[in-house]
């Protein structure tokens, strides 16, 4: 059986995209594990299935490289919007996409019939511990101490439809990300796992970030993580609410704006190549 796919990335966060309007995917978890391997498959952070929805213009399902299903991916949903518009499946410059974290509205910036930038209404940030979830008492986890492996860290926990643990400190390039990220993510206070963002305040409303994603390890970018980092920075008094916050990720830049009602994310989406894979 042959399947058509598109390889796309947002700030280097790359997935293999499948049009499920016109083809059926069997065992998406196994497919993601097999195809995401860099040297033995197509390579990527996982696969994304794009198909019809009864409640939105389209549906997006995300499977990480370990086969686990994700609820939301900020970089992935921008690429999904570009795929839908550029292929003519959804010829709208404002569209809705159904995810496991709810329906998201996206606004596309189009030039010569191709999508260049996408702004996503990511919904409001959630700080209540039981909604993240994180097993720390209180109404919020803002700058709380967490001891892991004999080392204390101050963490801020937030959900953007998936759980995030944000840690502010020195230049994240100096961190052993695999060791530090794994240690924090393995803490029993995160019953569903967690994405871990290491953040440095690089200037006014400017953040530098590296991320350890559950199910994938280090990725070059994480859209929901950039949103979580910006919101955590606002709540810790490091950045300004209502103003654009520039987040430098390893794979590129995203622009985030947190308001009382929602979080806006703007960034690019790139088609790398298309092809067919025999299963």
TrEMBL record:
Question: What's its job?
Answer: Catalyzes the stereoinversion of LL-2,6-diaminopimelate (L,L-DAP) to meso-diaminopimelate (meso-DAP), a precursor of L-lysine and an essential component of the bacterial peptidoglycan.
Q: Where does substrate bind?
A: 13, 64, 74-75, 162, 195, 213-214, 223-224
Q: Which GO terms describe its biological process?
A: lysine biosynthetic process via diaminopimelate
Q: Where is the active site?
A: 73, 222
This protein's name: Diaminopimelate epimerase
> What domain of life does the native source organism fall in?
Bacteria
Task: List localization entries.
Answer: Cytoplasm
Q: Its principal location? A: cytoplasm
Cleaved signal peptide residues: none
Q: Which gene encodes it?
A: dapF
The reaction(s) annotated as catalysed by this protein in its Swiss-Prot or TrEMBL entry are: (2S,6S)-2,6-diaminopimelate = meso-2,6-diaminopimelate
Please provide, in alphabetical order, the Gene Ontology terms of the cellular component aspect for this entry. cytosol
What Pfam families has UniProt attached to this entry? DAP_epimerase (PF01678)
